Amino acid sequence: MTSVSSSSEFQHQHHFKSADHQYASSKQGIWIFLCTEILMFGGLFVGYLIYHSLYPTVFKNGSETLDWKMGAVNTVVLLISSFTMAAAINYVQRGLHKVAAIMLALTIACAGAFMVIKYFEYSHKFHVGTVPGKFSLVDPACSAGGKRAECESKISALLKNPAELEKNHVNAEEVSRLKAVISQPKWEMFYGFYFVMTGLHGVHVVAGAFLIFWVFIKTLRRKVGPEYYTPVEGVGLFWHVVDLVWIYLFPLLYLVG
C-alpha cells in the first residue's frame, strides 16, 4: 500500500509530477533529516566513549549515582510508545481513524510520562548538587553524612593556601587525600555528558509530542487516511529514532557502573 492514490481525495502539490512523486520526495526528506539527527547524537556518543575510555573510574562512579530504576521505567514507557505509534500508522493506513487517534493519544501520554519521570530525576540531582560545575571537586565520601559543605570549604582553602591549611587543624594525611581528590579528573565530565545528552533527548521528546498532537488533530479531522498518510508516517519515523537514541543512552549512562 502506498500513501497516495490517483483519486480526487488527494491532490499533490503543483511542483510535483504526481502524488507518488510527492510521497517519495517527502519520504526522502524525512530520512535525510533523521540522518542529521543521528549524526548529532552520534558525535555525543563518540565523545562519551572517548572520555569513558580515558577516565573509566569517573564514569563508573558517576553512573552509580543515577537511579537506574527510573531509567528502566522510562525505557519501558518509550518502548510502549513505539508500539502505539506504529499501531497508529497502521490504523490510519486502514482508515480506522478513531482507533488511530486513541493510539496517538496513548503515545502522547507516554511522552508526558517520560518527561514527568525525567523532571523528578533532574529535581533530585539539582537538590543534592550533582550537576556540572558544582560537583567537580567533591569526593564521594564528602557527600555522605552532610559533609559536603565542610569538604568544599577545606578544598577551597587548600587551593588558596595549602601551607596555611596544613597548620590549621588539618593533618598531613587529610591534606594529601584532598590533593588526591583534586588531582583526579572532575566528576563534572560525566554529568556534563549526562545533562547534555538526556537534555537534548528530552527536547526531542517534547518536540515529538507536539508533532504527534499535530497528526492527532489531522486524524480526528480525517485529513489523513489510506489515500494520504505521509505526515503520520514521517512523525512516526522521527519518534522511533527518538526512542532508539534512548535505547543507547540508558545502558551507557545508567548501567555503565
TrEMBL record:
Record flagged with keyword Repeat: no
Cell location: Cell membrane; Membrane
GO cellular component: plasma membrane
Domain of life: Bacteria
Name assigned to this protein: Cytochrome c oxidase, subunit III domain protein
Bilayer topology: Multi-pass membrane protein
Domain Heme-copper oxidase subunit III family profile: 1-257
PROSITE patterns: COX3
Membrane-spanning parts: 30-51, 72-93, 99-117, 193-217, 237-256
Family: Belongs to the cytochrome c oxidase subunit 3 family.
Organism: Leptospira wolbachii serovar Codice str. CDC
GO biological process: aerobic electron transport chain
GO MF terms held by the record: cytochrome-c oxidase activity
Keywords: Membrane, Transmembrane, Transmembrane helix
Short name of any one Pfam family annotated for the protein: COX3
High-level lineage: Bacteria, Pseudomonadati, Spirochaetota, Spirochaetia, Leptospirales
